[in-house]
Design brief:
Blueprint (H helix, E strand, L loop, with lengths): L1 E4 L3 E3 L2 E3 L4 E3 L2 H9 L3 E3 L19
């Protein structure tokens, strides 16, 4: 399962930086995702944004 790292992570055979993508066995990938360290590739994360109020007008 391909994942994208949200935080740095090291293991015996790899060193991953935030933003890097890597294939992991599904069980390991799910563990990293549940821990908040990674997201599945293809999943989009959006920041919610509040619609700005009407611009101020001065007279």
């Amino acid at each position: 399962m391909e994942i994208k790292m949200l935080a740095g992570y090291t293991g015996p055979d790899y060193i991953l930086a935030p933003g890097e993508r890597r294939d992991f066995p599904k069980d390991k990938a799910v563990t990293l995702i549940k821990a908040g360290l990674a997201v599945p590739v293809g999943e989009r994360r959006f920041n919610t944004m509040v619609k700005p109020s009407a611009s101020e007008t001065r007279r």
